[in-house]
Amino acid sequence: MSTFPLSAIVGQEPLVEALLVCAVDPGVGGVLVRGERGTAKSTAVRALSDLLADGGRLVEVPLGTTLDRLVGALDLGRALAGEAAYEEGLLVRADGGMLYVDEVNLLADHLVDALLDAAATGVVRVEREAVSVTRESRFLLVGTMNAEEGELRPQLLDRFALGVDVTTPRDPAVRAEVVRRRLAFEADRAGFVAAWASAEAALRARIAAARAVLARVVLPERELLRITGACAALGLDGVRGDVVCARTARVLAALDGVEVVDAGHVERAAQLALAHRRRRDPLERADAGQAEIADAVAGAAPDGDPPHEPPPDGPEGPDGPGGGGGSRPPAGDDGPARGGDRSHDGPWTPPSRSQDAPARAQGGAAPDPSRAQDDPSARPGGEQPDPSARAAAAGGVPDPERAALRARLALAGRGEGPAGRRGRSVGPDAGVIDTRAAEPGDPLALVPTLLARLPYEPPHPARETHGGRTAVRAGREGALLVLVVDTSGSMAAQRRLARVKGALLDTLRDAYARRDRVAILAFRDAAATLVAAPGTPLEQAAAAVRALPAGGRTPLAAGLDAAADVVHRERVRDPRRRALVVVLTDGRAPQDQAAATHAAGRRLAQLADVHLVDTEDGPVRLGLAAELARAADATVTTLSTRRAA
To answer: Catalytic: 37?
Structure first.
């Protein structure tokens, strides 16, 4: 089947540039592509594989793969004949080619660990059951993911050399060209590929030329200092980012047909190599780091930023290697498409910095005027806030209360839910740590059961019994976290609302780290509103929290019933995922709703673990939240909203 040509992809220049870097120098490392659905992530990866005739085969890791399938295991067919033999896994089959992992963020952590270890070392080591082997496994690693479905932990992000965030083009003309080319491809695949053959040949020649010149490319000292200065300014852990950025800058210069790295190459390399490594608030916009990186690179320029030096044996002049951006390689045939898209022939320039870049460079989104009413520190002319108020302004609560709240948000016992870090799991997504003799009703672990019956010498430990064996699993699971917040009139005091929003944002950050699926409900006046449906990206959920209004009556029963409905729907969708409901309220519902409120609390307790955050404050405490907690069998944490003494 024909593959969509890489040179025909339009509107995703950073993605194509990252793939070309890895094609020229696979030693740079893998590339992680993060983006929305329908943004040509998989199309570009498969197109690169077809473009590289010498790149070996494309091996894809399916989402439901197991550790045995990934690294290899006992060959069952030969084992049944009494022979202990190794069956190669996907990592070994990818040796010399490209390994493509779609939805890499949904792979279990132990699978991603094994995959990245092989990518870093170039070998696969298997020490398990009756197998002890080492095989070469050198491949170009490409992972794609949709951040809406969960993030990779930072340690794993750092193991991908390059990272690209792709978005849907906003320009109607670009979108029209995307549609035009896609329709033409679907109408006549062979004809479309033939029409773009010359452009593909030019791109293939560009890769070959870059490989030939790469060894001669010089990284001047001032550009190296620019790279290390930017990495230091961004506060990156370790020096892996510095090394990858330097190596990428050299490849970009080779792709441009020049032999000296300049500032433009460094900035382009930094956007590819550092964006996914920078420390960022998980609640900020995904694109907030571009301006911060550009500012860090610009600010790291050595004093005076002298003109670019020519290569030792190269010519000087405005069009030679000493010229600002270097020369572009000869343009190939751009194909027959309208507009003559030439986006893949030359360097990609990062987006220009906007006026709000300084604010975003501090690690957050651009200032939001709507937050001023909830943020004491945002009021002009106001008094200096105390430490508790500063914690609220920063989106948090004082350390002791934050620690107490997080400690309470735990799942009791052991479940069988999807991989995460909220509670203990013994389910199918948990890793196998051992085997034991199977009891009636236990699923059989096939390989250990076979080992128990085969005549190996010396005897294998699993041969203690002639019965079946079953896996012993241990791991962590994620939860459905439903945040139910009271935004009625009793919560409308400026300091109280700011602190409650701060507690919610803190809980969202914790949910990010624990890979929970989050929903947010708010109740006031006469009803409850689902402000963030389960699975909403956390940056969107955070924006919804910051925009929460307050006022009106306290329909607490409606909020609890709505939470129960959300949990019930999600249980139908995913029966294995356990639910944890956090209710933030002072409990001051109308007296005529007390019975309905307690009944709703009891219903909710039957579906989920419930934790109540009591926000009641002041000299007179009614203790209504505690009464609700008893009805819902909930644990309680008190959230102080008063100024510290």
So the answer is: no
